[in-house]
Amino acid sequence: MSRTSRYVSLLREYKGMKFRMVKTLLALWLLTGLAAGAARAEIAWHWEDKFSNNEQAMLKSWITHTLSALESLVAPLPFDIDIHFYRLADRGEPVPWANTRRGRRQGVNFHVDPAFPRKAFYADWTASHELSHLLIPYLGEADSWFAEGFASYLQYQVMRHMGEMDAAGITGAYRERMARARLSYRLPDIPLAAASRELRRAGAYPTYYWGGAVYFLLADTALRQGSGGGLSNLLRAYVACCRERHTRVAGLVEEFDRIAGEPLFSGLLREFRERPGFPEYGGALEQLEIQLQEKSADIGKDLVALLDRLDRHRRINRISAVGLALVEEGKVVFSGGLGIMDHDGSGPVTGESLFRIGSITKSFTALALVDLARTQDVDLDAPVLDVAGSDLFSNDWAAEAPVTLAQLLEHTAGFTDISKSEFEFNDSDAIPLSSTLTRYRSKHNTAWQPGLFASYSNLGYAFAGRAIEVIAGSDYEDYLQRELFGPLQMNDSGFFLSEHQRRRLVTGYDTDGETHIPYWNMVYRPFGGLNTTVNDMSRFLRMLMQDGELEGVQVFPETVIRRTRQPTTGLVASAGVASGYGAGAYSWMHGGTRFHGHGGDADGYLSRYGYTKRNHSGYFLVVNAFNADVLNAMRRDVESYLTRELPAVAEPEIHYLGQREIEALQGRYLPQTWRFGDGSSGRTLQVLSEGNQLFTVMGNRKRLLIPVSERRFRRRGQSEATSAIIDADGERYFVGPEGGFRRAG
């Protein structure tokens, strides 16, 4: 029998086993439940070289997010860990080297280059590999093939839970690395386990790392075919019961077999120790890809599984409360909460619990102004100073480029964000909007010519709120209560809390999920001061995706709702790019499907709503902690659920540029906008070519720029143009989600 046939036979043998097993399965489920409720590992941070506060925050976020994904995949580690950081620059990658620390205290040493952007660290496999090592004890140098194979196999599974890879990406990475390792294996008469020491001595680390990963590929696919639910389920039970018992492979494998109920792991170990040559894995990769895709489909089709996944994110990250509304084909399928109001156990979260939603308030402000302008016959392209008062702000370009109402709503008005003193404002009194604008009037000036570039600014929405007051002859808060919340029957939404409502407000926490952040009174309520409930937001969602209609009533005209989705100002809109920031909402892609919506940060709360017109589905999601990584992981899960049955969106055909056209677009582009400060520290953008392909480079991040026309571009995985290169007033500009840039020279 060939080695390939022997391994396929082994898989079939385990597939047919009944895993004995009522007792074993009951024990596994019990242990799984215990692991899910276990306390999360505490991290002790050690900065062995000097890192700035921003660098420390970024590195902490990376490790915390990776550990959360590992614990979501398997289980919380049953001990605290030490993370040591060393600075190691100019090696061409964010994490040139790392290794685990074993002993009385477990942990990892990371040698990093913090000049790389946050996304580069998240896309790097090193942290997921090294932290995976900690799930099992140190097994000694002789069996390093087993330990390294274990960590190599798990690293991509962890990255999938981080949202960095999908099922096809995982199996593609396995296929490439295992095939490369097999080709480089030069010891056909020696089993992998016996050859690992020589391979290690020769520096052929990838060969025995990925040879060892084959062991866990075969074990995982066998477990998935049987009743065990896969390697992650087995490891969950192992961590709960037995993580600190064994320090040798024999004892570890015996424990794995006991949990599985059959000698799967010992049988594979014998094969790897006795069968000469690189281990064969037959069709195991193809089988794994099918299993992973089926698992994704099961989660997508099962609302209960989705809620369980979100709740697992919540528990692992010590978030007490999650609010969620799900709308499918215009109907609410879930509106409620997960968890409790605060860590003191004051009661469960429900659809009636109040949350702060931060900048999602802008969607309501914009909707109010667009509709008010319609009813009062005010042109959104009218100058703000003509409509809302001549002394709101200063504009050095007023003669040729006045700030318009539409520009306020689309962040193209030329303003930076509010000042430090405005951010720190926390007066609990209901001070009128006009008074706070007057107090900080000296800080309100345009920083670049209005109407050219999009740059996010809370200040613009303060002026939009004031415009509502002047046009309507009413306080901003009263107008929204009367003209938006009332017609939409959002009866629990508003800007000020009664004593009864304060008791229904979910407590807000910092990133750790435990440090309480007191209620913050925002200086300008139109940009972020709204309090609301999940049930109220579900009504808002349904109205948006039904173009203004709710329960048979046309609450707002369809033209008003369409206007919120469509950017009309700025160079990027003039180039025909439909994505970007409209009137109070922006768009993004998930798997090629365009979502519209907004996010919110409200000092202790993070939130997001989004909807797609492709199947009239959407969501509102809020957590009571300043933890963007968790919110984004939950958001990706929800968007995958909502788009699970949609056909793939074809990417636009590539518009191939000639060499002369490519050369004309290359160069160094200087930032023209900035959100804070004076703009002196803004990063430049480089457009360069390799062959007939264009790339952008910002910092250490290099990204492919795919032309869909001569001057409009998309990124890989996007179904439409999102950026453009434009000539205006004798200058050449790059505009897109990265910001606005002018070519130097």
From TrEMBL:
Protein name stated in the entry: CubicO group peptidase (Beta-lactamase class C family)
Locate the Beta-lactamase-related domain: which residues?
Answer: 316-629
Q: InterPro entries from the entry?
A: AmpC-like, Beta-lactam-related, Beta-lactam/transpept-like, Peptidase_M4/M1_CTD_sf
Q: Which organism is it from?
A: Chromatocurvus halotolerans
